[in-house]
Amino acid sequence: MVEADLLVFDMDGVLVDVADSYRETIVQTVRHFSGRDISREQIQEYKNQGGWNNDWALTQRILHDLGADVEYDTVVTHFDKVWAGDEGVPGLVKRERWIGEPGLFERLSTDRQLAIFTGRTRWELKITLNRFAHGITFYPIICADDVTLAKPDPEGLLKIREWNTERRMLYFGDVIDDLRSARAAEVPFVGVVETSRPERERTINQFRDEGAIAIIENINEIDQVLV
Fold first, then answer.
1. CA–CA distances in Å: residue 99 to residues 61, 62, 103, 154, 215
2. Which partner for 191 in 21, 75, 134, 215 could form a disulfide, CB atoms 3.0-4.6 Å apart?
3. Stated pTM of the model
4. What is d(CA 131, CA 181) in angstroms, rounded to the nearest whole number?
C-alpha cells in the first residue's frame, strides 16, 4: 500500500469502459477502409507493444499492416464520425460506461486531489465527463492538446507535478504506455486490468516486469492500494 494525496487517472479503461466505443471504432474503421476484420485481441497486442496510445495512429498502422495505406486525416475524419456520431446517427461514444461506483470519487476527494492525464483530446474528454462525472472535480486535467509529446513521454505527468510539488502522486493506467510514462516521471504506477481484457495475463505480466507497484481489476478496488 502507498501514501498518496494526488491521484492521477488515465481515462480510457480506468475511469470509463471503452471496449464498445474506442476499441469498436477501431474495428469498424479498419473494416471500412480495408474490408477486413480485426479482433480485440489483435488490438491489444498492438497496445502491448507500446507507442500506440493514439487510436487514430494505431488505426492507420493496422490498415497499413493489412495492405491498405490511408491518409492520416482521412482515418481521423471517419474514426470521429463513428465514435461521436454523424448526421443523426448516434456514435459509439454512447456505449461508454462509467466504471466508478456511485460516491467513490466524491469520497476520495474529501482528503485527496484527483487529476486526469489522458491521451484524449479535450473535446473528447468533455463529452464523457459531462455525461458521467457531475459533481466530481478533477484538477488538473491534462489532455493530448496540452502536451507536445504523447505517452509514453512523461510530459503530462511532469506538468501535473510542477503544479503540485508538495503532493505525493500516484498514477493509474491500463496500458504499457501509461506505465512507461509514469516510470519516466518517477511516479508510482498502479495497473488497472479488468477480467474481460483481451491479452489479460500478458498485460499483467508486462506491468509486473516493468515496475507497477500494484495491479487491480478495476478502479473500485482502489482502497486496496491506498494507505
1. 29, 28, 12, 25, 16
2. 215
3. 0.95
4. 28
